[in-house]
Amino acid sequence: MSDAPQPRGGFATRIGFVLAAAGSAVGLGNIWKFPYITGEYGGGAFVLVYLFCIALVGLPLMYAELIIGRRGGSDVLGSLRKLTQSSGPAGAAVSYAVGGMAVASGFLILSFYAVVAGWAVYYALAYAGLFPLEAGGDMFGSLYGKNKSLPWHTFFMVLSVGVVAAGVNGGIERACKVLMPMLAAILGILLVYVGVTGGLSESFTFLFKPDFDRLLRAEDGGLKPDAILEALGHAFFTLSLGMGAMVTYGSYLKSEVAVVRDGIIVAILDTVIALVAGLVIFAVVFSHEGAEPGAGPGLVFVTLPGLFADMPGGQVFGFAFFVLLVFAAWSSAISLLEVVVAFLVDSLKLDRKMAALGAGFAIWGLGIWPARSTSALDLLDNITTKYMLPLGGLGIAIAAGWLLTKEDREAGFRALGPIGDVLAKGWTVIIRFVTPVLVALVILNKLGVLGGE
Ligand code: PHE
C-alpha cells in the first residue's frame, strides 16, 4: 500500500467499452428473468411497458452513471465524492450513502448471482455429456439449495476473479470482446433452430401483441398495477443500474465524446437480446402442447430442459442454450466484482490482484449460504434487487440531477452540437423530476405502501 497514484488502466477501444458495458447489462436478467416475468404477466402488454421504462428511466440513468464515472475518474464512491464537492455536506452524505450501498450491492448480488450461474455451468456440462441428463425437475432439485451446487458456484467465482484480476483492458475488455460476439452468434443459431422446429409465430404474437386486459386484470377482474412497477424495477436491473457498475466502467473511458451514443447502443443491445431470448424460449414452450409460459423462475431450469428432451437435436440445443446463459452471466459477474475491486483499488489503495482475490474469496464465502439455502437465496435477491438497486438508482438520479455542476452534468451532451443542448435540457428535467418520482414509486410499492406485493 502506498499513497502514490495507482495506475488505473482503462478501455483501449470504444468498441471494447461498448462490449464490456453490454456484457454487464446482458445477463441472467435477460435470459432467465425477463422471459419468466414476461410469461407471468402474460406477454405483449408487459413488454410494451418494459420498453417504455427502459426509455424513460433506464436511458437517463445510464447516461447519469456513465458521465459520473467519466468525469469523476474513480470508483463509484470516489467519483461521487469528487463531483459533489461543490454541494458541501449534502454532496458528501449522498456520496457515502450511494457509494457505500453500491459496493455492498455488488458484493451481495454477486454472492447469489454466482450460485445461479453455477447451476447453468452444471447444466451446460450435463448437456455436453459429462453428467447424466435427468428430467429437468430432478436435475434442478439436486442442485437448488444443495451442497452439490458448491463446486459449480466455486468454479464460476474463479472464472470471474481471474478476469477481474487481469485488469480492465487485459481482463474485462479482452474477455467481453470474445464472449459477446459468441453470445450473439449462439443466440442467432438458437433463433434459426426454433424457426425450423416451430412455435416462432406464436412466440412472436405472445411477445409483441399487447393484451392490456391480461396485464391489468387478474383472472378475477382485479387490477394488477404491480406489473408496471415490476417492469420498472427490472428495467434498471437488466441495464446494471443503481449500483455503480456503469459509473465504474464509465471511469475507464478516455473521452466523453461518445457517452450518449454508447449508452443508447448498450440499452438497445440489452433490449434486443432480451427480446430474442424471449422469442426463442417461448417458441420452445409454444411448440409443445400444454407447456406453460407462466412457469415462473423454473421456466429456464425446469420447464425448458423437459421440453428439450423430445426435440430433434434437443441435447445440442440445450448445450448451446446453457453455454449462452453462462457467457451472459460471466460478463455480468465481472462487472459486479469490478465495482467492489475498483473501490478497494481507488478508494482504499489496494493492489488490484490482491483486491480481486480478497473480494472474490469473501463473496464466494458468503455465497455458500445462498448455495445451500433456498431461503437465503431469496432473501439476498429480494434485499438487493427490490430495495438496494432502486434506492441506489434514486440516489444516483439525485446526485446527477441536483448535486453535480452543470459543466459535469452536461459534459456528454456538448459533443453533440446544437441538438445536444436540446437533449441536455430534456435529460435534466427527466433526471431531476421524472426518474426520482418513478423510482420512489417502485420503492414505496415494494414496501407495500401502495398496496402492491
Ligand atoms: N444486468 C445484469 C443482468 O441482467 C445484472 C447486473 C445488475 C449486473 C447490476 C451488474 C450490476 O443479469
Notes on the structure:
The protein has 453 residues and is mainly α. It has a single domain (17-446), classed as Amino acid/polyamine transporter I, CATH 1.20.1740. 77% of the residues lie in helices and 0% in strands. It is built from 20 helices and no strands. It has helices at residues 14-25, 28-40, 44-72, 76-83, 88-127, 136-143, 150-165, 168-197, 200-208, 212-216, 226-238, 245-250, 259-286, 298-308, 314-347, 352-372, 374-403, 406-409, 411-414, 418-446. Helix 5 (88-127) packs across helix 16. The model has no long low-confidence stretch (mean pLDDT 91). Bound molecules: phenylalanine (PHE). Phenylalanine (PHE) is lined by residues 24-25, 27-30, 237-238, 240, 243, 245, 332, 335-336.
The shape, in one word, is globular
List low-confidence stretches: none
Mean pLDDT: 91
Distance between the termini: 47 Å
CATH topology term: Amino acid/polyamine transporter I
* CATH-derived architecture: Up-down Bundle
> Which range does the strand content fall in?
under 5%
- The CATH C-level name is Mainly Alpha
Main sheet? none
- The tally of helices reads 20
Q: Give the SSE string.
A: HHHHHHHHHHHHHHHHHHHH
Helical content band: over 70%
Tally of separate domains: 1
Determine the structural class based on helices, strands and strand pairing: mainly alpha
The small-molecule ligands in this entry are: phenylalanine
Could you give the count of β-strands? 0
**Gyration radius, to the nearest Å?**
21 Å
